[in-house]
Amino acid sequence: MTAPLDTPTxxxxxxxxxxxxxxxxxxxxxxxxxxxxxxxxxxxxxxxxFVDARIPAASRVLDVCCGTGTMAELLLAAGHRVSGIDRSxxxxxxxxxxxxxGTPLRQADLAGPVRVDGAGFADAGFDAAVCCFDxxxxxxxxxxxGNLFAFVSASLRPGGWFVFDVNTRRKLEDVFxxxxxxxxxxxxAYVWRNRYSAQRRSCEFAISLFVADRPDGGFTRHTESHxxxxxxxxxxRGFAAAAGFTVDAVTDDYGExxxxxxxxxxxxxxxxxxx
Length: 275
Hints:
Elements: E1 18-19, H1 35-38, H2 44-52, E2 60-64, H3 70-77, E3 81-86, H4 89-98, E4 105-107, E5 126-131, H5 142-155, E6 156-167, H6 169-176, E7 180-184, E8 188-197, E9 202-211, E10 219-229, H7 233-242, E11 245-252, E12 265-272
Parallel strand pairs: 1-10, 2-3, 2-5, 3-4, 5-6
Antiparallel strand pairs: 6-12, 7-8, 8-9, 9-10, 11-12
Helix pairs in contact: 2-3
């Protein structure tokens, strides 16, 4: 359930020739190989510093929807002990290449009920959990996001912290909207088409990725479909309360200021109750 790519760049045409084969079937099957280069502009160090300032030193942290492990790597460098969980096997393969050998990583679809067990997950004793880069927006039904919050709550010790972010309505409705764009990075290019549904309160992303992996210098085409839903604050507060959390703070994009009508990403800090 790793989050999609961030604010678009202006459209360009993919370079060179391409093969129309579409090898990817699951989100991030193809994107995983180029994801870190594609998202290099993200302020991961700033996000990690925000998290680090709000959780105890040397915390045991669960990185939810950990993707390729960038946040986990930064939190490890800050002195925390990190385990990761993600739906995408392809993204977890990248994470295993990045993170120290033995870092607990688990594959699971958190939209459904998930037991808190397995290596590094057995004792429900995490001090904190993080879920960064819009991953929560992927949990598009009330049941799915309820399952996510319940899993995180069950994974934390009493008093544990949960820090996550979400794309706002303005981001999905006005910035992504129903638009298309793309770029050419040389050895890969993409065309990204969005379709916004007011009825579903969601934006669907149809991504065609062209990867220069052929002996003749041509490109292989992969297609993936992603979808995000926006939530208003009252809904998120309700899901948090149902899972035993209280809301400590809601800020504008990992900053200190409160969200405004112009906010594109909200950062939430929750604390699990003692009961």
